[in-house]
Amino acid sequence: LETCYTLTEEELAYIEKRIRGNRLRFNFAIQLKTFQNLGYFVGINVVPQVILKHLKKQMSLSHNLKPGYEHQKTLSRHRITIR
């Protein structure tokens, strides 16, 4: 978990600077780390809770924050950026 799903300082800075809103930042971080470690994108709904909790802790996000995209266009834009 620490090795594969810990955000670097550069990644955290990028997310903070470029992504608006905590929920979208969280979504982007999930997409980024799962893609880096699996080599492909997965649905947020299949990412284990332990990974979500680990990312929330690193990003100092509320434990109540739920991941998920309201708009497919935003998901697509995040994935293009990550690629």
Give a written overview of the molecule.
The longest helix is centred in the middle third of the chain and has 17 residues, at 22-38. It is built from 5 helices and no strands. With 83 residues, it is mainly alpha-helical. The relative contact order is 0.20. The two termini are 22 Å apart.
Q: Report on the biggest sheet.
A: none
Q: What fraction strand? A: under 5%
Helical content, roughly? 55-70%
Query: CA-to-CA gap between the ends?
Result: 22 Å
SSE topology string: HHHHH
Overall 3D form: globular
**Sequence stretches where pLDDT stays below 50 over 5 or more residues:** none
Instruction: Determine the mean pLDDT.
Output: 97
SSE-based structural type: mainly alpha
Radius of gyration over alpha carbons?
A: 12 Å
What labels would you give this structure?
globular; mainly alpha; 83 residues; single chain
